[in-house]
Amino acid sequence: MKTLKIVLFVIAIMSLAALSLAAEMGVSGGRNLDELWARAQADRDLSAEDAVLLLESQQVTQAADGSLATRVHRVVWIGSSVGIRGYADLRIPWNTATSQLDVEILRTWRDGKWWPDAETISETAVVNTLPYAVNLADDYTTMRETMLLHDGVELPCIMETAYTITETGLPGADGLFVMPRRDFSALTELQVTVPAASALHYEMLNGVTEPVIEEIEGAVTTSWRMENVPSLLTPVTDAPAAYEPTVVWSTWSEWTALRDHWRKGFDEAAVLDEALTDSLQTWVENAPSYWSRLQAVTDQVNRYVRGVHYPDRFWTFTPRDAVRTWDTAYGHPLDRAVLTAALLRAAGYEVTPIFVGTGHSLVGPEIARLNGMGKLHLSIKGDPAGLYDPDHGVLSGQAPLIGLPIWRTDKFFEPFLGNSQWPNRLEVTVTLEPGDDGHWQGSGQFHAAGIFCPQGDMAGMDEGARDYLTGVVGGVIDGAILGWTNPEIFHQHQVIFGFGVDVEKPEPEASGRTRLIVGSPSHGLASRAGSIHLYEDARKSPVMLAGPMEQLVKVRLKVGETEAAHLPEPVSLVNEAGEFTVTSTTKDGWITIERELKLTADSYPAEMWPQLRALLLEDADPANGVILLD
Questions:
Q1: Beta partners for 468?
Q2: Are 36 and 44 in contact (CB under 8 A)?
Q3: How far is CA 375 from the centre of its chain?
Q4: Model pLDDT for residues 390-438, shown as the tens digit of each residue
Q5: Lower CB count within 10 Å: N or C terminus of the chain?
Q6: Residues 444, 429: contact at Cβ < 8 Å?
Q7: Domain map of the chain by residue range?
Q8: Burial of 570 (0-12, 13-18, 19+ CB in 10 A)
Q9: If we measure between CA atoms, which residue out of 355, 381, 375, 356 comes closest to residue 294?
Q10: What is the fold of 256-417?
């Protein structure tokens, strides 16, 4: 076996050497591929890489008639099966009703030549498919996902791909381009060309240098280039533009112009006919409260209009009419948002479409654009204020918006960061005494403010409040069942509830002792912490939060004559990221356990990950909540 491994290693080295010494690949798209390959080899240890990009290029050209051609040109060396999965078979989405796809280059460099040919694309390498998500949605079947399949792939090899998608009927164009890719790139570039009579607005973020600007034959080309670009910082978060080198650009003159054009299409489509208006009245006539009527409407949309989970960016300015979406009984997020907004407005609600981003940071707020602005939601005015996600059909309060970049499409012309003047704090207190039939019984208090406030999740005519509290308290004490619930404060920024609780006493263990674990509440701090993996002892990307957060869990248990054989050891961990404490006391027949976690910042650079991780690991450690009773 050892000999076989040595032979395979030698073969791999010889293959790599042959690839390096082979005939020249030449120039493609004005780029010398051999120079880029030499640079990649000089900078990277290829034996440790799945793939290395020689070139990652995007060229966007706006014509005088407004059509937009986006050319993607990629040359990549792959050295493993992971690299093959990432780059060999590409799925390119485009809409045949509004755009055209032209595949220009699709070839593989191996054994000193291009496969299948330097100038020819194999007839079997370009395969048009209908996206599965729109398979049963006839109004969307102009969509295609074209598979680009590279022939001649063997490890290692170099693959080159170039294709252009030309879109028509666009009122404007914009983009967000993150320069780093998943793998190292010898050269990454973005070029945006607009007619000389037009203006291109742009902003460079996180270290991108000034562009090169050229005017040729009535068109102005703005180019950004970066050489030897490291891969994206890991773990890759859902908002790399907040900290990675990024360019945002737009041909829109200002936010107002973009807002007005987008809202015109949305509002003209959000109109009901007489039949749907009559149906609406039957849904809400027996719903006695503000929130119950809101639930009645969204429940009907969720029940009778199937969600088509496919990106709606292909129809950004052309949503279907609300009635058409209802009649066909399906819709992508934009169409479901139009329908829901039309119904709620007809029911008397003030509804504003908003785009909700990620990353807890505004990215290029001066540049009017839709790219990078996040997912479409509906903001519903009231107390409680509602938030509807048309993609997943979720109705909630607006606390989840805290700390997120938001673009409203009404009186606000620019994006802003969701905010709360209330502290992000969650407190759960439970008091238990021995009850009947081997149960513990008692009461408790739930206090949540800021991002933890669940008013919208608890409101309405159903069991929402009790179900939510059962989940929270069940995280603190496994098997907890709630009885009565009673609100003290029920506000869109703060909720305080009292509750009764019943817990079946666990069966004694083999030692004869009874084990009770004080855990962390569900919907608590751990669920708000974002792109965090506690199993990683190191990370390179920052941690971004909605703001400082605090969580307190307090359990009081009356033991009477029973002696506590074991209580959690006291813990006091204080560092730059915050603090975690555990205290255990016994007094007058009562055991009291308190666990408190405080994160003191809204973002943590990668070098502070060890301190933040140490706090979160302590909070996740069951040993910090174990009680053993004799």
A1: none
A2: no
A3: 9
A4: 999 999 999 989 999 999 998 776 788 888 888 999 999 999 998 878 8
A5: N
A6: yes
A7: 24-251, 256-417, 424-629
A8: exposed
A9: 381
A10: C8orf32 fold (3.10.620)
Q: What CATH code would you report for 24-251?
A: 2.60.40.3140
Question: Under 8 Å CB-to-CB from 85, ≥6 apart: which residues?
Answer: none
Token pair 């949503």 in the structure block, residue: 319
Buried b (16+ CB within 10 A) or exposed e, 351-369: bbbbbbbbbbbbbbbebbb
Percent of the chain with pLDDT over 90: 78
DSSP per residue, 75-134 = EEEE-SHHHHHHHTEEEEEEETTTEEEEEEEEEEEETTEEES-SS---TTSEEEE--GGG
Report helix, strand or coil for 1.
coil
> Residue 530 has what pLDDT?
67
Beginning with the edge strand found earlier in the chain, give each strand of the sheet holding 626-629 in spatial order: 514-517, 626-629, 564-566
Decide: 612 and 604 in contact? Cβ < 8 Å: yes
**Locate tokens 């032979």: which residue?**
7
Nearest 5°: phi and psi at 29? 60, 30
Q: What is the DSSP string of 359-372?
A: SSS--STTS--STT
Instruction: Provide the CATH number for the domain formed by 424-629 in this structure.
Output: 2.60.120.1130
Out of 18-27, 179-188, 409-418, least confident range: 18-27
pTM of the model: 0.91
Omega of the bond leading into 235 within 30 degrees of 0 (cis): yes
Could you tell me the two tokens for 428?
Answer: 């759960």
* Pairwise CA distance, residues 524 & 472, whole Å: 8
Where helices occur in 477-621 by DSSP H, the ranges are: 609-620
